């Protein structure tokens, strides 16, 4: 695959509902998209960085700058055998994994199209449908939260994840557990607690949660291992797992019993598969996280979720939960039993709606 040109653009997409977490509120997504053209095929990639560097250090402005200044020049003109060959080309740029992931994933899509194989096959996937859960942001009231959960359960979703933070935790779990004693329920603190909250976090055990996601510092593994010794509920690490070495360290230290794999957070499909493999080797289940992706990232998450150790429902849900109109056709849909069929056609099986993307584009540069 000779890399002939790359387009970088920023689109703005209003969310159907604001998404509120312990670190902030999102009303409209600012999304960087990349298009890589090589010898007659085109691959699209989505950068999962947000407008603000609140979930991670990266944001739209830094990712665009690093792509423009470093990553795109490192790629242009090269001929790659396979998408993962971009990893050494990017290696001297430290961090900036979401920026790298967007370009790498576009190359995987291009490779799948060039070889006329489904993306899942290229990644090593084994399942034809994936299990879906939802992530429910902080709500204004418990009544509103309960209504939201009822809607998602009626739609068939197999796991409900509640965002939480100090002062908005036990009361939420109590309300939802009382009404639905047997559902798969988990929570995500996005680093809102410290080890001084260990006694309080212990009280979560009585709600029989599938996991508590990233309770402590975003960059911490060691303190999670201390916390895990004090609580029964399994810890799932999200923010703290940047690569397969982190996953190995976290698992061997006993810092988590479950790993959330976000392809952008770990820098692209090559590393995401490695994280999966490390967890699988240790008997630790993984699931695919979400970053409020547009259809491009969402479709790629569907394919990643088909790997064998993705045994828990992911945060990969229907396009219509987030967007009035998604930028792919068909949009991602979820069956009444909370599953998504993994398209078994060359590429991702979703077409990119370029007209709509043009209308949503704020900035565009071609290199
Ligand atoms: O921590 O998983 C998270 C969204 C933005 C940033 C971080 C997270 C999330 C979600 C949303 O939980 C999951 C989704 O895309 O549906
Ligand atoms: Mg999370």
Overall tally of domains: 2
Given helix and strand content, the structural type is alpha/beta
Distance between the termini: 17 Å
Can you tell me the CATH superfamily of the largest domain?
Answer: Enolase-like C-terminal domain
Overall pLDDT score = 98
Task: Please name the CATH architecture of the largest domain.
Answer: Alpha-Beta Barrel
Q: For this structure, what is the CATH class of the largest domain?
A: Alpha Beta
User: So what's the overall shape?
Assistant: globular
Range of helix content: 25-40%
Poorly predicted runs are: none
Adjacency order of strands in the biggest sheet: 5-6-7-8-9-10-11
* Largest sheet geometry: 7 strands, parallel
Secondary-structure element pattern, one letter each = EEEHHHHEEHEHEHEHEHEHEHEEEHE
Please count the beta strands (DSSP E, at least 2 residues each): 15
Radius of gyration: 20 Å
Q: What share of residues are in beta strands?
A: 15-25%
Q: In a few lines, what is going on in this structure?
A:
The chain is of the alpha/beta class and 367 residues long.
